[in-house]
Design a protein that fits this description.
By secondary structure, the protein is of the alpha/beta class. Helices cover 62% and strands 8% of the residues.
């Protein structure tokens, strides 16, 4: 089979699954994409033995069946028999039927499937999903169903790649009278911990976002140090990374943490890890990064990490040389 034919078959099966899921929403039933692909593949393999045309679930005929009140797959048998009788005996009667009449039947059946309220809901909830919807609609109307699906999936994949490559990072603060730490932008009543910067990484760490996260962490540290210097508060001593949302990490991510650790050491800051997952901990252990950071600087929760940092801040002996250097820098 030629590559173009294989691509055509794949897009047709993809179209059939999308059509099935569209009508499943109206009837409140579940569509298993894997089983649909197996069914389409089996039909096309059997049909290829008899030079059968590509088998799929087209949008137009499905819409006509839906509006005609068809309930089961028996309608396909009735339709196949009707098409066979028409092609064998009734073709001369439809020879002069205008194409406008045939197209009007399909258009009238598909107009009822356009859900304006759903599009408005997408615009209200998520503007990006609305763009995907409109792009798919424009592709279907002006090109074909396959083109519309390809455009929609391509934009959705672009969104996923952007999310992975530019994950969100937050500064966490303490909610008063609790051991809970949340995003300071979302919870404006949170308070910062003196001498401690708490950062949350909200995505797995891969090669695609390792460089961005390294730069982002360095930027957060610079901004926090500038903020403390301008306000005259306690200098920054500890940087806590909340890794509860980091589901996985690759070698590039481990290298990024090693570089962050070296930068913190040069700045005389202590890197602390909080709540790393089992998979992440296993990889950090195999790469010997836990030994470099120190087993004592890994904690189950952010609250425990902050408590340990506060304890070290209050019990550590002051360094006269460092205090003299800081005083000289202020002057």
């Amino acid at each position: 089979m030629r590559p173009r034919s294989i691509l055509h078959v794949g897009l047709a099966c993809w179209e059939g699954i999308a059509v099935g899921r569209s009508f499943a929403m109206f009837k409140n039933y579940h569509i298993d994409g894997n089983k649909e692909m197996i069914a389409f593949g089996t039909m096309n393999i059997v049909g290829s033995c008899t030079s059968c045309y590509l088998t799929t679930g087209p949008f137009s005929r499905s819409a006509v069946n839906f509006n005609a009140g068809c309930k089961t797959a028996v309608s396909n048998i009735v339709m196949a028999v009707a098409v066979m009788v028409t092609l064998l005996f009734l073709t001369p009667l439809f020879h002069y039927t205008p194409l406008v009449v045939l197209s009007s039947i399909i258009i009238s059946a598909m107009l009822g499937l356009i859900d304006y309220e759903a599009a408005i809901h997408l615009w209200t909830v998520d503007k990006f999903d609305f763009i995907v919807c409109i792009s798919a609609y424009a592709g279907v109307v002006f090109c074909s169903v396959e083109i519309g699906l390809v455009v929609a999936v391509a934009i959705s994949l672009l969104r996923v790649l952007l999310f992975v490559a530019r994950p969100k990072t937050f500064i966490l603060g303490n909610i008063p009278n609790s051991m809970i730490y949340r995003n300071v932008e979302q919870y404006t009543n949170t308070s910062s911990v003196p001498g401690v910067l708490i950062l949350e990484i909200d995505a797995p760490i891969y090669f695609a976002n390792a460089s961005y996260l390294r730069e982002r962490i360095a930027r957060w540290v610079d901004e926090e140090e500038d903020k403390l210097k301008s306000s005259g508060e306690t200098s920054l001593q500890y940087v806590i990374l909340d890794m509860g949302a980091v589901g996985n990490i690759d070698t590039s991510g481990i290298s990024m943490l090693e570089e962050v650790k070296k930068v913190m050491d040069r700045r005389e800051l202590q890197l602390v890890l909080a709540n790393p997952g089992a998979e992440v901990t296993k990889k950090l252990n195999k790469s010997k990064l836990i030994e470099k950071i120190g087993q004592e600087w890994m904690y189950l929760t952010v609250g425990e990490a902050v408590g340990a940092c506060n304890f070290m801040l209050h019990t550590r002996k002051p360094d006269p040389l460092k205090e003299e250097s800081e005083a000289y820098n202020k002057v």
